Amino acid sequence: MKVNVGKSMLELVEGDITLQKVDAIVNAANTTLLGGGGVDGAIHRAGGPSILQECKKIGGCATGDAVITGGGNLPARHVIHTVGPVWHGGSQREPALLASAYAKSLALAAARTLTSIAFPSISTGAYGYPLDQAAGIALAAVLEHLSGSTTLSIVRFVFFNRMTFEAYTHALRELCTGTVDISYK
User: Fold this and answer.
1) pTM value?
2) Exactly one of 16, 40, 65, 132 is catalytic; which is it?
3) CATH architecture designation of domain 2-183
4) Residues whose CB falls within 8 Å of the CB of residue 146, separated by 6 or more in sequence, listed in order
5) Burial of 100 (0-12, 13-18, 19+ CB in 10 A)
6) Domain segments of the chain: what residues?
7) pLDDT mean values, one per 10 residues, the chain (185 residues)
8) CA 94/CA 63 separation, integer angstroms
């Protein structure tokens, strides 16, 4: 699914984020930045040891924040590492922290004048964030960013399974009803 937002394109696809040929991919990292499971582990394995070396120099990342490293052996030139919240029922600022993780990642991309970025679904794996709620928050943050002045021409969400793709597709249709030019592909 593709949606035009101003001069930018928002894409939802199924696939492997480590294979994306974009300026930056976003890593759903943990606060240590030392690798882990899921998307984090896959990015560290595919990117090689240089990413871990840069992460060690950075020294960590707070929940809701983001940092950037080189892409190592990945097709992407950069990896933006962001830490989403662990789900505790929604009463511990989880929505604000998740929105911040996306916003800070987009701000880093803009600060580097990047033109393309790929996101996973942050916090919806081991961190247990409900998929339908996370999808709405993620997409709202991206749409807000794209509605302003941005260097990004492509924002792509890459999902490893159909269930996640469908949740984001549903959320995007709800968010975009009548507000942006939508073209489905």
Assistant:
1) 0.94
2) 40
3) 3-Layer(aba) Sandwich (3.40)
4) 5, 6, 8, 10, 152, 155
5) buried
6) 2-183
7) 92 98 98 93 96 97 98 98 97 97 97 98 96 96 93 97 96 76 39
8) 10
Catalytic: 40? yes
Reduced to 3 states (helix: H, G, I; strand: E, B; else coil), residue 103 is: helix
List of residues 6+ apart from 138 with CB closer than 8 A: 98, 102, 119, 121, 122, 157, 168
What's the rounded Cα separation, in Å, for the pair 73 and 65?
Answer: 24
Could you give the CA distance from residue 81 to residue 51 in angstroms, rounded to a whole number? 10
Return the closest-CA partner of residue 132 out of 177, 83, 90, 82: 90
Helix (H) or strand (E) holding 152: none
By C-alpha distance, which of 41, 47, 38 is closest to 71?
47
Quick check: helix, strand or coil at residue 119? Answer: strand
CA distance 116 to 70: 15
Sign of the torsion angle spanned by Cα atoms 175, 110, 31, 51 = positive
